[in-house]
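Example record used in the benchmark description.
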Amino acid sequence: MAELSLRHIYKVYPGKAGAKAKSAKKGEEKDTDTRHGDYTAVRDFNMEISDGEFIVFVGPSGCGKSTTLRMIAGLEQISAGELYIDGRLMNNVEPKDRDIAMVFQSYALYPHMTAYQNIAFGLKMRRVPVPKTDNEGNPIYAIDKRKIRDIKRKLRDLNAEIAHTEEGEYSASLLDQKTTLEAELEHYQTTPVPAYRYQHLSAAEIDDKVKRAAMILGIEELLDSKPAEMSGGQRQRIALGRAIVRQPKVMLLDEPLSNLDAKLRTAMRAEIVKIHQRLGTTFIYVTHDQVEAMTMGTRIVVMKLGVIQQIDTPTNLFDYPVNKFVAGFIGTPQMNFFDVTVRRVGDKLETVFPGGSEMQFDLKKMRTIDPSYLDGEAHEVTLGIRAENMRVVSKGGIPATLSLKEVLGNTTQLFFRLTDDGEDSILCVSERNDLRPGEGLRVAFSEAHIHLFDSETECALMERTIGNPVDGDAQ
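Model output (structure tokens):
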């Protein structure tokens, strides 16, 4: 179990020197001496993770969630910023020394080994440090040659990266890392530290750890089976067992359920949550599936293009998204968006929808709106509302045309358009109806669940509290 602190973390992949290009007209080689620009995969990532939390990184492909996870694991070098685990700076610590276990998207099980052997393999290969002592039991101090070799190797790699990096913020960060490593090297070359010898775990210790993990995962009957004899869910349990036996401070899971079918995914989702509750270990889980994020995480990190959009609990992300991207990414079906013009008229918010339809919303029933949008002038904004917060009415609302109906058993999804050339919006109702595609209907909104976003910045314009001051209220 551990606390993590990620402070101003960046991951930059340096551009590569341009190759010689051939002229299309003359067929001559031309030395370009140009460089492709550096690519920033993660930008200014800041987060404090408490002991025992279940954190989920979620976002579309290419948002930097897996890259961030790999930097925590030590599989990717941190370009800038600082990573602390239990107060210890981890930037230059080898992955094997971070006390972290990782479960990958692919099971990566050895097909010729039994489940027992797969789980035990890492323990058999692992050597644990034991302090060296003299005949009287006093600790022995010596120059740590192993540590010196590791630092020298890191310096060589860092110098090579600096040589191929253009000057700028990223190169300055590399120079800072070089200075830190040089100081560490000098310290370990001149200062004796406690000496250790490394030894393997005994067969009895390994057997105890494997059987304990198997009991937690409920796979005791599978220990003598090989991967080919197991289902996808059982293989994933074996992969989890291989990580659990290490008793790590932090468990990292990189889209571990993406290879499973829908039914198994649902079952394994619940299993992983139960495992977290039993172990009490800090879990960091990466997924592109917002349903997994909403059902598993104590807190969720929503990312886009390497930048954190919002960190919050699942319910707060759903109810109070900070921008249009989070609002559209979290929730199934996706939130509906309408480009509208709003104007305050007394205690009402006059709203003009595409096609010219108008609705007036009671400001006292709506969440608190940025006062600059309630000055009586017309403002173009984006209105968002979820499918379950709309309803079909006989009077009032705005007119629409049904384009598709999906009956899902306990709910019915109605796809409608406000204009002939407009995009479909979705309304979700619990009762069944006789509406048919092409027919007209009227749609009303729940005022307390309306979201407003700036049309340019896409930032939310509403606070979490309900109610807006109207004429006659104390200012």
